[in-house]
Amino acid sequence: MAHIQLAEEFYMANEALKSFTPTSASIPPPGVNYRLRLPSGTPVHLHALNPLAFVLRSAQIYSNKLAIVHPDVRHPVIYSYAVWAQRIQNFAYGLLEAGIQPGDRIAFIAPNMSAYHGVLGARAIICAINTRLTHGEVAYILEHSGAKLIFVDHESAHLVKGAKAPVIVVNDTGKEDDPYEQFLTSGRKFSNERGWAGLEWERNEDAGCALNYTYVAPPHQTGRERFVVDVVIGSYLAAVANAYDTGMNRDSTYLWILPMFHASGWTFPWAVTFASAAQICLRSVSYPHIWNHLINSGVTHYCGAPTVQIGLINAPMARRLEKPVFAIIAGSAPTAHLIGELEKRNIKPVHVYGLTCTYGPSTVCYYQPDWTSRALDERARLLARQGHAFATAEEVRVVFPLKEGESLDAPLVDVPKDGQTMGEIVFRGNIVMKEYFKDPEATRKAFRGGYFNSGDLAVWHPDGYIAIMDRSKDIIISGGELSTHPDVLEVSVVARSHPKWGERPMAFVILHPQKAEKWAGRHSEFEKDLKEHARKRLPGFACPEWVSIVPELPVSIIVLEEVVRVVT
Amino acid sequence: MAHIQLAEEFYMANEALKSFTPTSASIPPPGVNYRLRLPSGTPVHLHALNPLAFVLRSAQIYSNKLAIVHPDVRHPVIYSYAVWAQRIQNFAYGLLEAGIQPGDRIAFIAPNMSAYHGVLGARAIICAINTRLTHGEVAYILEHSGAKLIFVDHESAHLVKGAKAPVIVVNDTGKEDDPYEQFLTSGRKFSNERGWAGLEWERNEDAGCALNYTYVAPPHQTGRERFVVDVVIGSYLAAVANAYDTGMNRDSTYLWILPMFHASGWTFPWAVTFASAAQICLRSVSYPHIWNHLINSGVTHYCGAPTVQIGLINAPMARRLEKPVFAIIAGSAPTAHLIGELEKRNIKPVHVYGLTCTYGPSTVCYYQPDWTSRALDERARLLARQGHAFATAEEVRVVFPLKEGESLDAPLVDVPKDGQTMGEIVFRGNIVMKEYFKDPEATRKAFRGGYFNSGDLAVWHPDGYIAIMDRSKDIIISGGELSTHPDVLEVSVVARSHPKWGERPMAFVILHPQKAEKWAGRHSEFEKDLKEHARKRLPGFACPEWVSIVPELPVSIIVLEEVVRVVT
């Protein structure tokens, strides 16, 4: 294969990568062009926005540049933009070959996937499913979404047993005999070398492209899961803002710490390609691998769930990085301690906020020019706020919540910008989901007053920054370590007032389903066990004072929303 | 007024700025919000893209940050984002008060203007007119555009004498008694403090927002000027790409060297506000002022017509800058000499290409990661190419030109990517004009094959870079100095083959209309005069070997297109 620019560090350190050869179906034909067929009647001066454009453009300009690499696995793979684009095209043709029609849902249960681009080529909809769900939950999603085709990572294959739709296993090898590669190879054959021109550009910017499973919080809680429909123009604009606001460009390297299946990976699968940046995949949150890449692979950006950060700064390999790395943090406000520790390692926190219903992050706590000179505590207090709508979003507001008996059509009223009056955060515009899938009634309620009502309670500060009140408490993020306890499925740690220390950590834990019985009626013993687990791994101040098992909390909750949901 | 952040350098150096107070009508009311009225039926999740959003968002997040300053005039002015946004709102209300309807054209003949934002508030269309045109040409544009209202800088007032539409003179003072300020103050009163909510958001992304006068080159030449209609979504997306691709952000300061009336200022009036950056206005290309700002005002970006660069590097104040400045250069390729000289001064050239019909620049010669290590000459050769479509544009192509007798609907055929076969550059997508105003026939011809046909001849290189053949010659840019000759109106200098030196500069000159008679029949004497003028100001190699007076070249030609047009 052609030499991939800028990937020397991988070649050096990794013999398997050095000798890796993409399947022959992954190699683009000579004279490839990147133009899809346009629907007839497309005006010369209007082109439906679609994030598929990003990877096409990157493949054109930076064909030999590193697009994506998956190094820390038994069979590492590495693809240039030109090769990766060809694989995306093959995937799209594979879908067509399988009879997929525009608007059909494609399920993906895997830590990583390039399907975020591939589905756009076939005008299908990706339904990425959390690999940590149970078989029953996955079955529910497959049923509800009506997925026509299922791709599943070999480690998650048990989750789709008995599924009605055809299943394709991804062995994550990149080798010709991998069933996933056979799907791509077959797609390439099916294309009959028509190339991109054999696929049609989506004319409707409002067409769905991702279906994301979420948990809906009060006041819209009905006790069941919802599917969030994201559309192509929203995905395009959210990705542009994520790239722009985090300063990603062609010199950037993005490390996948955030699972790619969380709310379309916060649109970063597309944001990274808008920037023509490189991306490094992981199969799980492994601190040695993460630090190896931070130190040796030129990583410039990562998104981090709050539970990841403490583990990251406490890892044995942790050190000060030569060049700054931007950590996009959502889910809870970074504390002064955390900011200080990250800064010591030359990691710069970017505090963002959003929900699955807003394509992941859609606000940024923008740094004001005069904050840099402030003391750490003061900066942390300012940075803890959720901030303002990001570059392509409309203004985020804090409004008085729905009153008893009030019409859903009543105009929303802003709370005063006094930093004190509590209200509900609402969003509107292109970075808001289209609807809950097959649930017009829930959609109608969520869209009270012409805005998406987040259910998050917040104040509006005089400087225009919004701040979630629950989150504005210093939340101690030690969940990353707690989640390594073998019986823990999900965990969130929040600050709770303490008579002596002011505040101490409290952990909310969801047990692994198969372990729930083991601890039934013995919650205090589990608490003891978890605290012991914590003491071995965390400084005393970060160990939980209290532990609460919350079996009723849906395990599918996305990390973005995790802390607030648990606290309410 | 509130202290403006980051503007210390201006306050320090400029007493008049220090004491400047905006008119009382410029001060936003307490509790201002930035939401326009939405047309009924606007979906929650779709919001028509409109660059007005940029200044609203900047005013919200960075209300006290420097938005715009005009320092080097008798009455300097400086506005924060909050104050500037209020002035933009006042302008919109002023238009409504004057009876302006959506789609009406507003003429502006001035070196600087915030009308690019203000018209969007009233859903009107700005028609910015080159201040260097003659009275007759201005009259033609006013007539053809049907401008309902005319704003004219006090120095250009003679150009609109006898105009039918009402004229408002801009004295460029920022003081209460300035007729322009009276217009804004009256607009504020007319608003009755309804604020932004009293204005309606443009529902139609395809509505016109700018009308730009251009000269149409062969093969579409008909000997008359054309008006290019730009729409709101195109302006939005072009501005986003210009900000993203040049790395502008809230820490940036943009210096207006490019006239703001050239092809909507290449959309930089909006791009700068997308970035929440600061902008510094000039009334004319004055090297001492430019260098003062490069050295003392934190300038990070400017757009430069080719004729400006040589003057810039040869100015007495020229020196190496502490921090890098990005020079966005269009109109001709930067030569190795120029790149070298700019780099010595820590100015980094970004070579862009486009036409008035493509919102100004819409391609960038993207730097490949491995170019940095190449020798200057090699880099210059690579950088001289026009490159690839920019971040929000669709692929730019080089196709075989229209054949004799061929249908305009015939599909376009790419030239081979061999770096040799000449073809015509064509564009399509959101960064292409909507149409020629009131000229469907010319539009139809320009849109042959579903693409905008540029008339520029180019080759397509194997690496996907397009390169204009005329421009790929090393064009010696000494026009900046030649244009200081008192009898010269416009000048372009190109390379022409020379028996001894390989290539030598040739100057094409348009004389000032009032000087044409003076030199009538004495062109060789003028040539001698101009060469002498050049020798006093330029190194020998940059002095023109030949001088040609070209009275038939429209003086309104935009700098972007200047060189190529003259060469054809």
Task: Summarize the structure in words.
The structure is a homodimer of 568-residue chains. The first copy, chain A, starts with 7 loop residues before the first helix and ends with a helix. By secondary structure, chain A is an alpha/beta fold. In chain A, the strands form five sheets. Chain A has a nine-stranded mixed beta sheet with strand order 2-1-10-9-11-12-13-14-15, sandwiched between helices. Chain A is globular, with a radius of gyration of 23 Å. Helices cover 30% and strands 21% of the residues of chain A. The model of chain A is unreliable at 216-223, 471-478 and 552-568 (pLDDT under 50). In chain A, β13 and β14 form a beta hairpin. Chain A folds into three domains: 8-204, ANL, N-terminal domain (Rossmann fold), CATH 3.40.50; 232-472, Rossmann fold (3-Layer(aba) Sandwich), CATH 3.40.50; 479-567, ANL, C-terminal domain (GMP Synthetase, Chain A, domain 3, 2-Layer Sandwich), CATH 3.30.300.30. In chain A, α3 runs parallel beside α9 (268-274). Chains A and B meet through α3, α8 and β15 of A and α3, α8 and β15 of B. Chains A, B: Keywords: Fatty acid metabolism, Ligase, Lipid metabolism. Chains A, B: InterPro entries: AMP-bd_C (IPR025110), AMP-bd_C_sf (IPR045851), AMP-dep_synth/lig_dom (IPR000873), ANL_N_sf (IPR042099). Chains A, B: This is AMP-dependent synthetase and ligase.
